Amino acid sequence: MGQAFDPPWSTDLSLPTGASVNLSTAIPALALDMLSPHGEAVRVFSDPVPYLHAWELQSRLHEERVRNQVPDTVLILEHRPVYTLGRSTTASHWGGNAALLCEHGTELHHVNRGGSITFHGPGQIVIYPVLKLDRHATGPRQLVWLLEEIIVQLLSRWNITGHRIPGKPGIWVMTPTPEKIAFVGIRIERGVTLHGCALNVDLDVTPFHRIHPCGLSDCRIISMAAACQKAISLDLVKQELARLCRMMLKLHGPAGLDTD
User: Fold this and answer.
1) N or C end of the chain: smaller count of CB under 10 Å?
2) DSSP string of 217-258, one letter each residue
3) CATH number listed for the domain at residues 2-13+39-258
4) What is the DSSP letter of 71?
5) What is the DSSP code string of 131-171?
6) In 3D, which of 195, 136, 134, 135 has the Cα closest to residue 12?
7) What are the residue ranges spanned by the domains of the chain?
8) Phi, psi torsion values for 158, nearest 5 degrees
């Protein structure tokens, strides 16, 4: 049995039991080979990765880490536009009309995490650590704190102050109204972590306006670019996140850049 740490604000990205999507046929073998982790401790993807491709890679890495076939690994990537609906999602959180929500080509996936609906897309960087939990933290809450701290330190490099708000997990920016800039959620299965955190860097936040993010009608969303009022280099942020992950999670293997 896996231990889930997926409260309503979680960004736990996983497929439901009995999902209609057949990953073995939905994802070409060539694509999976292109996404091979090759044993790097931190793997950075230059181009947005389809949601299901990233999930298949994360799942495969998780199984290999459980078997001690690969080292602790962190994936840093962007997704192609996708909404994910968690177990507590209701129609009032997104309107219940999939055709309308996805009319611009955005994917929609029901997932088995806790929480409600969220959005991922280009310009938002997702960090997926696949780690032996007991090597990095005393439990899920401490690991969540570490992931949040990585985001807080990253934001400080761009002179943005990230805040933790009691009762409203994630990282917020005061403008002065609290606006969420990062989402954090993990899942533990057989002692190894899945999922992670997402940081809004430089993206159009309009897709969030079509939903109630995390099921919260009053959840305001912001990006680093909006907070700084200037364009932000995604590549530079990915590089800095890779450095911080290696330092704060004490990863010792090589880093790799995937340009496929």
Assistant:
1) N
2) TT--B--HHHHHTS---HHHHHHHHHHHHHHHTT--S-EEEE
3) 3.30.930.10
4) -
5) -BGGGT-SSHHHHHHHHHHHHHHHHHHTT---EEETTEEEE
6) 195
7) 2-13+39-258
8) -105, 20
pLDDT in tens, the chain (260 residues): 344 343 333 333 333 333 333 333 333 333 333 344 445 689 999 999 998 899 899 999 999 999 999 999 999 999 999 988 776 788 888 989 899 898 888 999 787 665 677 899 999 999 999 999 999 999 989 999 999 999 999 999 999 999 998 877 789 999 899 999 998 878 889 999 988 889 999 999 999 988 887 766 778 999 999 999 999 999 999 999 999 999 999 997 666 777 55
Catalytic residues: 214
Pair 135, 109: CB distance under 8 Å: no
Q: In terms of Cα–Cα distance, which of 128, 251, 101 is closest to 183?
A: 128
Q: How far apart are CA 56 and CA 35, in angstroms?
A: 9
- Residue pair 192/181 in contact (Cβ under 8 Å)? The answer is no
Kind and range of the H or E element at 60? helix 51-66
